[in-house]
């Protein structure tokens, strides 16, 4: 770990944290800002909810909107991408008789939420080393004449790929497209959300933009804004988009109040420069791990995310969800927080690089892996 940076976080120094993408990590100063927001609300809840929060939340919303390079009033605050997906499915009134397209690299909750509303899922299937044209073709092949929505992950969770969102949106038009951009804010430079040609774009701020957890954004194209409602409707009646998302009844709004503090921490940690440094660190770190495992890089023509990437595990290791879970437990038991991923019958490690990581983190993992894999093979009898 980089001690100077790690000191700004509250992570357990007894663990090697190589999974920032999962839940982020909140810098101490941001956690303290959230604590202050809570204390302020508790001093006079009536005054806070009636007189203070509307202004604080509007300011937080607009700071997130600017951070994403979007125009004022275009983007709502939600608590996470899962909630954003629910808002979109509800707003489009998706239900029985409708098809929703997801991909085999997609995060599960979009599919589950669509199925829970009675829609039928269609899956665009492509391999981890697909080139962008094959990705587009897979989405087109999954369309039916009943498709009401295509959900595409901009950075895929299990495989860390940056999918060709604009090309997919153009190819599936006029079907509306929802981008699951959970990993994107603060992690993918050069973003121009309005130029993607999509209808909805949802990104978590609590992964790579250092806000408290339960802070996310939902950008909605102008033609859909009138029909989008928060899932908690307590005080939204009569308000326009996006204000109607600001005060969602008596939920804890402190993570949103502290959004500007999280974004300030992102800038202080080095902004896009630190993303570039982390991308280089990840490339070097992944080489250490690959060398220890003796496996090939599974990369095809679709680029990998800057701070998130896969390393293939040896044949037969972590090829099922259960085996991946077992390997996760073994790695955790010897102090490594790094997720094994079973994807389409092959096992991978998904490595992340955050500002508090340094090369020694990956070197230690590389040194520990052979013995850990031996214990896993001994238990399950894999080759
Ligand atoms: C691609 C993707 N989408 C959605 C989510 C869900 O995020 P949340 O639980 O914050 O809604 C995740 C979580 O890691 C993710 O990786």
Automatic annotation (TrEMBL):
**What SUPFAM superfamilies does the entry give?**
PLP-dependent transferases (SSF53383)
Q: Which organism is it from?
A: Terrabacter aerolatus
Q: Which Gene3D superfamilies match?
A: Aspartate Aminotransferase, domain 1, Type I PLP-dependent aspartate aminotransferase-like (Major domain)
Q: Where is the Aminotransferase class V domain?
A: 46-232
Q: What is the lineage of its organism?
A: Bacteria, Bacillati, Actinomycetota, Actinomycetes, Micrococcales
MF term (GO), any = transaminase activity
Q: Which domain of life is it from?
A: Bacteria
Classification via InterPro entries: Aminotrans_V_dom, PyrdxlP-dep_Trfase, PyrdxlP-dep_Trfase_major, PyrdxlP-dep_Trfase_small
Provide the protein name: Aminotransferase class V
Record's keyword terms, sorted: Aminotransferase, Pyridoxal phosphate, Transferase
Q: Which Pfam families match?
A: Aminotran_5
């Amino acid at each position: 770990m980089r001690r100077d940076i790690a000191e700004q976080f509250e992570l357990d120094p007894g663990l090697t944290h190589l999974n920032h993408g999962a839940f982020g990590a909140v810098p101490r100063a941001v956690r303290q800002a959230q604590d202050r927001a809570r204390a302020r609300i508790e001093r006079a809840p009536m005054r806070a909810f009636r007189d203070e929060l509307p202004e604080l939340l509007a300011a937080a919303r607009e700071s997130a909107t600017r951070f994403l390079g979007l125009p004022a009033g275009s983007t709502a605050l939600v608590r996470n991408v899962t909630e954003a997906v629910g808002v979109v499915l509800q707003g489009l009134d998706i239900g029985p008789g409708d098809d929703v397209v997801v991909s085999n690299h997609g995060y599960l909750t979009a599919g589950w939420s669509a199925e829970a509303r009675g829609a039928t899922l269609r899956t665009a299937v492509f391999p981890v080393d697909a080139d962008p044209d094959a990705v587009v073709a897979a989405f087109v092949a999954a369309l039916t004449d009943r498709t009401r929505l295509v959900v595409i992950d901009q950075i895929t969770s299990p495989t860390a790929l940056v999918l060709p969102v604009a090309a997919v949106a153009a190819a599936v038009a006029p079907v509306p497209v929802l981008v699951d951009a959970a990993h994107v804010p603060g992690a993918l430079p050069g973003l121009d959300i309005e130029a993607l040609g999509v209808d909805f774009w949802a990104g978590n701020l609590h992964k790579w933009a250092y806000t408290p957890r339960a802070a996310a954004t939902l950008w909605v194209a102008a033609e859909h804004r009138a029909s989008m409602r928060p899932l908690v409707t307590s005080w939204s009646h009569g308000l326009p988009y996006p204000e109607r998302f600001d005060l969602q009844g008596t939920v804890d709004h402190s993570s949103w109040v502290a959004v500007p503090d999280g974004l300030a921490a992102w800038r202080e940690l080095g902004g896009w420069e630190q993303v570039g440094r982390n991308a280089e660190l990840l490339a070097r770190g992944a080489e250490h791990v690959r060398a220890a495992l003796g496996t090939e890089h599974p990369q095809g023509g679709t680029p990998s995310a800057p701070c998130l990437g896969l390393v293939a595990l040896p044949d037969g290791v972590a090829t099922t969800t259960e085996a991946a879970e077992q390997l996760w437990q073994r790695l955790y038991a010897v102090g490594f927080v790094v997720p094994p991923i079973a994807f389409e019958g092959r096992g991978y490690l998904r490595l992340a690089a955050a500002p508090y990581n340094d090369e020694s983190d990956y070197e230690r993992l590389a040194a520990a892996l052979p013995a850990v894999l031996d214990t896993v093979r001994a238990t399950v009898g894999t080759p």
